[in-house]
């Protein structure tokens, strides 16, 4: 396992950005940036041993700054949506930045994805850290966050997330990588198959937040207990699919602790992605709103040209008392893990 470091340019504010490249003996490599503690590239072998970069990204800081799709980013303080940008905690109402319609999304107008994080090497891991001051985007309490990336010798990328706060606050962190297992820029991912170990999902209301209903997947396009091509689901006229413009929903994962939650496979390349997580939910987003644009090395990105698999707490959980809590108590420790393990059939 080796880690190399190089400059990746500067932000518009003049802050230097660093790229850190992890490579294992099998030839797999992952590139991460301290801008947004994000994953820029993930190269793994296909069934014929040919290396393919399966993660969408850009070639410059300016492109990341100009685009709002969170490509590869670590999003927070609170991933996903908070209805109306408001919640009550400790008898007080907090008003957050509203940045998607009437809702707060992925930490607000300047979430964690828009900052240069500190970085350090710790053994074979790259560890990013930052301190989010009290009041940032409207959140209570000072929050210290770390995101550690580790590439294993058997082609798994592990993301470990920790945080602690000096006041009760809301925390829900996740990685927002976009995957195309045929290679970034290889067109729509409709033929990719996806299976999820879940028997229920959180229904959406018109505003994109959950409506509070825990719905069974049985008899719906959300039944992915057996592998199903993504196109089979996003081409249906199911009301929930129409609301999301495709898949943009949270599945309620079975079990506790670190367990395998989902498997994404690409028949063409033979690459499979096995996702394990400690989180209670998995948001699946089939890049329905991704605009046509140029990505790394001139690759063409298109709507539905990737899928994001975001292990996280439920959307709007802070306002839904029946959902698992996303409140971090003062002095408590937030710890979550997401593992992306790559294999080939």
From TrEMBL:
It catalyses: alpha-D-glucose = beta-D-glucose. The active site is at 176 (proton donor), 310 (proton acceptor). Beta-D-galactose binds at residues 80-81, 176-178, 248. It holds the Pfam family Aldose_epim. GO terms for molecular function: aldose 1-epimerase activity; carbohydrate binding. GO terms for biological process: galactose catabolic process via UDP-galactose, Leloir pathway; glucose metabolic process. Its EC number is 5.1.3.3. Keywords: Carbohydrate metabolism, Isomerase. Pathway: Carbohydrate metabolism; hexose metabolism. SUPFAM superfamilies: Galactose mutarotase-like (SSF74650). The keyword Iron does not apply. The keyword Isomerase applies. Belongs to the aldose epimerase family. PANTHER family: ALDOSE-1-EPIMERASE, GALACTOSE MUTAROTASE. This is Aldose 1-epimerase.
């Amino acid at each position: 396992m080796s880690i190399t470091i190089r400059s990746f340019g500067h932000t518009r504010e003049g802050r230097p950005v660093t790229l850190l490249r992890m490579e294992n003996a099998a030839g797999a490599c992952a590139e991460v940036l301290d801008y947004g503690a994000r994953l820029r590239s993930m190269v793994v072998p296909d069934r014929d041993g040919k290396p393919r970069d399966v993660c969408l990204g850009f070639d410059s800081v300016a492109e990341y700054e100009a685009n709002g799709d969170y490509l590869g980013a670590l999003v927070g303080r609170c991933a996903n949506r908070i209805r109306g940008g408001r919640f009550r905690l400790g008898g007080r109402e907090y008003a957050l930045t509203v940045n998607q319609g009437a809702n707060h999304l992925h930490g607000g107008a300047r979430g964690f994805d828009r900052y240069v994080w500190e970085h350090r090497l710790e053994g074979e891991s790259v560890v990013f850290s930052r301190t989010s001051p009290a009041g940032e985007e409207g959140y209570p309490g000072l929050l210290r966050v770390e995101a550690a990336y580790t590439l294993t010798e058997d082609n798994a990328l592990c993301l470990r997330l920790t945080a602690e706060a000096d006041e009760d606050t809301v925390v829900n962190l996740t990685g927002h990588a976009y995957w195309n297992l045929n290679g970034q820029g290889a067109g729509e991912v409709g033929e990719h198959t996806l299976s999820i170990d879940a028997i229920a999902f959180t229904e959406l209301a018109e505003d994109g937040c959950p409506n509070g209903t825990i719905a069974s997947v049985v008899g719906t396009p959300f039944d992915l207990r057996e592998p199903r091509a993504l196109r089979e689901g996003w081409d249906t006229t199911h009301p929930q699919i129409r609301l999301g413009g495709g898949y943009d929903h949270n599945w309620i994962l079975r079990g506790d602790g670190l367990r395998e939650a989902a498997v994404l496979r690409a028949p063409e390349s033979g690459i499979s992605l096995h996702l394990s997580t400690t989180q209670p939910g998995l948001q699946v987003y089939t890049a329905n709103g991704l605009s046509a644009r140029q990505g790394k090395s001139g690759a063409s990105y298109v709507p539905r040209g990737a899928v994001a698999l975001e292990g996280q707490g439920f959307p709007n959980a802070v306002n839904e008392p029946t959902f698992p809590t996303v409140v971090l108590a003062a002095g408590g420790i937030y710890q979550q893990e997401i593992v992306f393990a790559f294999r080939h059939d």
